[in-house]
Amino acid sequence: MKVDIRELPQSVDKLEGVDFIEVEDKKEKKLQGIFISHKLAGEFKRFLEEKKEKEVQEKLEILDRIAGSCRGMFVGKSIQSIKAEMEI
Hints:
- The protein has helices spanning about 40-70, 80-85, and strands at about 1-5, 20-25, 30-35.
- The chain is of the alpha+beta class.
- The protein has one domain (about 1-70).
- A 3-stranded mixed beta sheet has the order 1-2-3.
- The protein is elongated, with a radius of gyration of 26 Å.
């Protein structure tokens, strides 16, 4: 269900039993946000937490691959020699 942001205060009675509401500015044709019913709030929160955890895990895997490819390259070398190699 879509509701204009200006009509939201007057539309509260109509929103009973609706799972989610898209709030838009009909004048500018721009989505302002979404309201979710209490029935879906827990499920939506779990979805967002899982999504964030997946993104973090993907970034950690990328860092691990980068770090893995560098293992042993700098063992026994001084900072000066590493800097000299990187400048070449």
